[in-house]
Amino acid sequence: MAVFYAAPRVGTPTGAIATHGEVSVGITATKIPPTNLDNRKALSIFSMSRNADETVYIGNADVTVDNGYPIPPSSSLPLDCSQRIQWYGIVAAGTVKVRYLEIDYA
């Protein structure tokens, strides 16, 4: 079961919108973030783990630890991507918290 925290959307004087939050990623594919910004242009995913054996793997809804892209502990992955791309995370065992930051350039 995914547990997540999502901050309110924050507008800027330039019209851009940013949001951030935290998701607990477990042994089943977990959507990161739970809800995409409508006109997302960028996303960054950060693994909060500090344990060397707790790598988070990201990919599509069919992601596994065998085919996902690894994000090592205490590392982030910045992505230029639209809201149409749905990202999911999974871990080999237990749960790992990840934080995300989304930007919508409106």
Low-confidence stretches: 1-5
Classification by helices and strands: mainly beta
**Rounded mean pLDDT score:** 86
Q: Any idea what the shape is?
A: globular
Question: If helices are DSSP runs of H or I spanning 4 or more residues, what is the number of helices?
Answer: 0
- Percent strand equals over 45%
How many structural domains are formed by the residues? 1
Instruction: Indicate the CATH architecture.
Output: Sandwich
**CATH fold assignment:** Jelly Rolls
What's the CATH class label?
Mainly Beta
Q: What's the SSE pattern?
A: EEEEEEEEEE
* Biggest sheet statistics: 6 strands, antiparallel
Give the number of DSSP strands. Answer: 10
* N-end to C-end Cα span: 32 Å
| Share of helix, binned | under 10%
